[in-house]
Predict the structure.
Amino acid sequence: MHRRPHIRRWGPRHFRSDWHGKRRTLFFRFAGFFGAVLLFFLLSMAGLAFVLTRLFGGDGQATVLVWLIGCGLALTMPLLAGLIVWRSFRSVVDPLARVMGAADAVAEGDFSVRVPERGSGEFGRLTRSFNRMVEELERADQQRRNLTADVAHELRTPLHIIQGNLEGISDGVYEANAEQIDRLLGETRQLSRLVEDLRTLSLAEAGQLQMNWEQVDIGELLADVGTSFSGQAEAAGVDLLYATSQGQGALHIRGDAGRLDQVLSNLVANALDHTAPGGEIRMYAAPGEDRILIKVSDNGRGIPPEDLPFIFERFWRGDRTRQSSSGLGLVIAEQLVVAHGGQISVESQVSQGTTFTVDLPT
């Protein structure tokens, strides 16, 4: 489990020095705009006062009164304009500068920055949208780093075994017999499975996975998966059972039979990894409202509650001592189910077993 990164929140005192200058620039531009508008307004008022006194032939007292009013406006309008500029700066320029400063930090690769979410107006929504975007970028970057490290880890073990055995054969330490060749072939098959799993996962996440849509008989699908794993289940001392609901006739959905077979195979393989000899694995399908539910359950060790949120993450393993697959089986199963417009969920209790439910539209 990865530690949650420290989040640095950017406030007025946390801007870098170069952004102090940019904030001042924005402020002076804002003030210059309002100043120009104010000057135009004052000149217009003076011109209007002059025109009015000329048109109506006002005496000296009327002229003085008009000019006194103009002077009063000349004193009060700058104060009013200054207040407007300050409030506008606080509500517009300052939040915008914060977002721009944080955007520069993100561009430099710092995904831990967050802009304080203040207010409920347009800039408040902008701030919240920006923070959500950065959170997604941070999550994607962390997943990329984890994937790179995990792939390197998964490749290292079989490559070292292959290299060590080949060097041993070359040096005459090992004999190039059928046993050694079979062992090396087993490691190359594991590498091939990992590469193919990564390819399938990348295509599924990009929405580019080729699908062969057809009517799929769920009963036949369960039977095929059960037959495929019967030998492994017998060798592991585990009973593998499958059935569909009685009295409902054949269950059909529109999907890719090969991909659905891959989903159930991954779930059964995962169950075999976590079920002790003498245990039992069941596959069961039943109709719902415009849907079909397929359950794969076992009475194995179960999954601790704190681990359940992570089981659909790449290479996550709750018990590395028993895991034999590439670490991508459940992730691929989830992506393939989503590609069919369905959902997959899990329920588990420690020492009692685990049940995966695949919910597919008909």
